Amino acid sequence: MPAAGASGAATRPALSRKAEPVPAQPYHLYVLECADGTLYTGVALDVVERFIKHLLGLGAAYTRSHPPLRVLACRCYPSKGEALSAEYALKQLPRQHKLGFFKAHERLEEAVLPLVRGGRR
What we know:
Layout: E1 27-34, E2 39-44, H1 47-55, H2 61-65, E3 68-77, H3 80-91, H4 95-98, H5 109-117
């Protein structure tokens, strides 16, 4: 039972400061090239892990029927909402403009494929 104060009422423990807000995790917008030449666009926390899921048939329904070959491009966003907004904007572009959406230094093809295929850099 809590201790009683001078007035006889129970005292409450001191309230601590509010916890700092947890920063949003960065999300990545990525583009895959599929075996039939189509492009698949998605959003993920970890692009390598998500690409592997797509390869194993555990990703999106689209990539189960259009197997992905490689990650063509990727861009990081500070929050899931911003990444989803960018994904929507990217999907509105014609195919020939989609890869122009990404800067050349953000392409992951050479970094991701050796990891996925077990090759060496």
